[in-house]
Every structure is written in C-alpha cells, then in structure tokens.
Write a structure and sequence with these properties.
461 residues, alpha+beta, Uridine Diphospho-n-acetylenolpyruvylglucosamine Reductase, domain 2, Uridine Diphospho-n-acetylenolpyruvylglucosamine Reductase, domain 3, Alpha-Beta Plaits
C-alpha cells in the first residue's frame, strides 16, 4: 500500500518535489534535539496550497499518516516524523504576498521565516510583535500552530492576537480560505481559532493574514534588584500603572539563574544581586512612548518605595543589549549545565514565588544534588525552569524530574505548557492542566476534522 501511495504522490507532484529513499536528508528525520531518528516514506516539499491539498487527498484516501514540518525549532517533538509517515515540508511555501500599510496587515505563506516577516514589516515602518530566539529559522506557520509567545506578550499578546485570517487545508484535502483582514468580523464562528495552537493536528496552515503595529522607534531598559517576589509583584503593578502601554517586557530572574548567567564568559554584571531577584524591565521610549525622564522617575520612585534595592538604567543601545544578553544566553545551558532538562510552565502570577520555593525544596529532597534555575516573563504568568543533575549522581532522572515539576504545576492549577505546545513530550502530562471534559471535547473536535487520524498522529492527544 505504501508503494502505491508513493507512486501516486510522484505521479501527481513530480520527483523533484517528492523525496524518497536515499534522497531524504537527515534533517527531515528529527528536529534540533537530535532525538528519535525515523525514516519517513517520503518528504513532499510543497510549493503552494494545491500541493498541500493534493498530498492530503492522496494520504487520506490511503489512510496514511502525515507529519507537518516547519523550521523544526520546536521543543516538544511536534515536528518529528513517525516511521513511514509522509512528511509535508513547508520550507518552499515561503514569502510575503502583500503588506497593507493602511490596514496594518501582512499576508504571508506559512513557511516564511519569522525574521523575514519582521524585516518586511520594518521596511514599511511597521512592527510584527512576536519575537523568538529562533527567529531566523522558525516559520510563521509553526509559530501560529503552537501559539508562540516571546518576551513582549505583556504588551502585544500571544501569536493568537496577531492573526486575523488563515488559509488551511483539512485532512481530506479540502481548502478553507478565510484570509480576513478586518479587526472586527463577527460573522459566525471564528474558524481560525481552531487551528491556532492545534500543532497541525486539525489542519495544515498554508497562508496567514498577520496584524502589524507601529514600530517602536526607541526603547529603554533597566536591570532592577528586588528583595523578594512580593516586591516583584508590587514593582509589576507600578510598571503597569506608570508605564502603561509603553511597557514592552518584564523579565524576572531568580538569584540562582542570575548568578549562573553572570558567571559566563563575556557576560557583564551591571548590578550585584547578592541573593536577590533581578528584573529586566523595558519600555517604548519613542515619540508615542514613555520619555527617558519619565522612565527614570519610574525607577527612582520604585527605589524610594523600597520595591527595588538597586538599579542600572541602560545609557546606550550597546548597554541595553548587554542587559538582554544576561536573560537570553540560555543557549549556553547544553555546554555549561549538561545534563539538564527545561520546562515552560504557567502559574497564577501571585503564586509563582511560592511555587519556586516549593519546587526547589521538592527537587532537592527527592533528587539530592540537583540544581534548579528559574526565570520567566512573570507579567504574563510564564515561568521557565531548568533542572541539572551532575553526572556523578548517576543516570539522569528525567522521568522523576518531570513527575515533580508537573505534579506541582497540577497542584497549583497551572499549565504544563505556557508557549511551547504539547507535541509528544508533554502529552502524558496534559491531564495535569486540562480536565476530562476538556480533553474529551478536544478529541471530538479532532474526530470531526480528522476522522481517520492521519494529521500529526500521536501529537497533543
């Protein structure tokens, strides 16, 4: 049956678009993690919506599983192929179709790299609000399918808030084109919401209409030292009141994380934390934002109110970049902190401080010698956790670490995935965040849109 499908794909799309056998490069067999190398039946490098529809019609007719692949930068195995799957690669489905400066929208193909979208918007003096470290490789379709977030969610919201319309191909090859450009459109169900965050399990996104914003012409930031998480909450409240819509980022770093990062080669230490928390706060300081004087007043008043004990305000772009380097140099973890595992979770904002304390205690109690680091966006309830166990402690107890972390997330009624998705690696823990009725409803939606279960099988549910 597989041979028949392969011949049908080649006949319909041609040898050049359908890779098989030795022609399949290793990059299609796994993602950046290098785990689970599986051989697909074929890799279809689609070049348009009709190619996607043709591929799905054939796979649906043969009841054959399909894996969707974008930039392969995901962290939960969502793009990893199963043995013998047909891979639909969106790498050739790239490009900006249109920018409507009057409506502040952009229509793009799903395979367009995020950085290309950002640069195209800036050429029109506009701004695309989602930004990730993998911007040069990750694709817009994947960003939408995982409802990506990033550092500036506190001002602009998640990827969901940046999408006005979508074109999607369903499991049976049906093309649903709903490239809405209007901010207000209440004509029936908002169909696009089904596919945003669905990780390719309900349909394959081929095009999107993205919402753009005025570009921040200038920003200013500060590193602030805080004595407690309660002080962080008070400082966040002040930032929201005094900075308003100018507030772009509010990044909290716990003492272990800040200490680890500032000991790395090439990282400066602008402020001494001495076991306290550090917050990186950034504001728009352009013509429509908060003035430099107002920003400095905001920081000074927080010092006077004893919410912060010390602060350093960036006096140049170079210094601001140095501040951000402390927060963003997490790529050093594999080199400096191996073996380790990381977590992307959400908690009610007021409870994050207590969660950190309790999780650190539980990890040290159940896994002696373990080291845990904590940092996150906080203003949008997102916390990142990194857990390291030295090699001399024996085998790396990842299942036990996950049990401790996700068990406590469940106790706090948080989310096991803030912005990375579920994929295969968090699937076992979905029940810690979603109740039986919610999971049952997800299954019913999946059954309705993909009754044969061919789209990204084994992912999410």
């Amino acid at each position: 049956m597989s041979d028949v499908l392969l011949k049908a794909l080649i006949q319909a799309l041609g040898d050049e678009r359908v890779l098989h056998g030795a022609a399949i490069e290793d990059r299609y067999r796994t993602d950046w993690s290098g785990q689970y190398h599986h051989d697909p039946l074929a890799v279809v490098r689609v070049q348009g919506t009709e190619d996607v529809a043709t591929t799905l019609r054939l796979c649906h007719a043969h009841r054959h599983p399909v894996t969707v692949q974008g930039g392969m930068t995901g962290l939960v195995g969502g793009g990893q192929t199963g043995v013998g799957d047909v891979v639909i690669s969106l790498e050739r489905l790239a490009g900006v179709q249109e920018i409507d400066a009057d409506a502040a929208t952009m229509t793009v193909w799903a395979g367009t790299p995020l950085q290309a979208v950002q640069e195209a918007a800036l050429e029109q003096h506009l701004y695309f609000a989602v930004d990730l470290g993998a911007r040069g490789t990750c694709q817009v379709g994947g960003n939408i399918s995982t409802n990506a977030g990033g550092n500036r969610v506190i001002r602009y919201g998640m990827m969901r808030e940046q999408v006005l319309g979508l074109e999607v191909v369903l499991a049976d090859g049906t093309i649903v084109t709903s490239l809405n450009k209007m901010l207000k459109n209440n004509a029936g169900y908002d169909i696009k919401q089904l596919f945003i965050g669905a990780e390719g399990t309900l349909g394959i996104i081929t095009r999107a209409v993205l919402r753009l914003h005025p570009a921040p012409e200038q920003t200013t930031c500060a590193l602030c030292v805080l004595p407690s998480y309660e002080a962080v909450l008070r400082f966040l409240s002040r930032a929201r009141k005094q900075c308003g819509a100018s507030l772009l980022a509010f990044e909290a770093m716990w003492p272990d994380f800040y200490g680890f990062m500032t000991r790395l080669p090439g990282i400066e230490t602008p402020v001494q934390a001495d076991g306290q928390l550090v917050v990186l706060v950034e504001c728009d300081s352009g013509p429509s934002g908060l003035s430099q004087d107002a920003f400095e007043t905001f920081v000074e008043q927080a010092l006077e109110g004893e919410e912060i004990t010390d602060a350093a305000i960036a006096s140049s772009l170079k210094q601001a970049q140095a501040f951000w380097k402390i927060r963003d140099s997490v790529s050093e973890f594999p080199v400096r902190l191996s073996p380790y595992t990381s977590f992307d979770v959400s908690l009610p904002i007021r409870q994050i401080g207590r969660f950190v304390e309790q999780l650190r205690e539980q990890l040290q109690s159940r896994i002696p010698g373990s080291v845990s680091l904590y940092f996150g966006h906080v203003g949008d309830s997102n916390l990142h956790v990194v857990v390291h166990v030295p090699r001399e402690s024996g085998g790396f107890p990842k299942p036990l670490i996950e049990e401790v972390v996700y068990g406590l997330v469940g106790d706090y009624q948080g989310s096991v995935s803030a912005e990375h998705g579920i994929g295969t690696r968090k699937k076992a823990w979905l029940g810690h965040t979603r109740n039986e009725a919610e999971i049952s409803l997800m299954s019913r939606i999946k059954q309705a849109l993909d009754p044969l279960g061919i789209l990204n099988p084994g992912k999410v549910l």
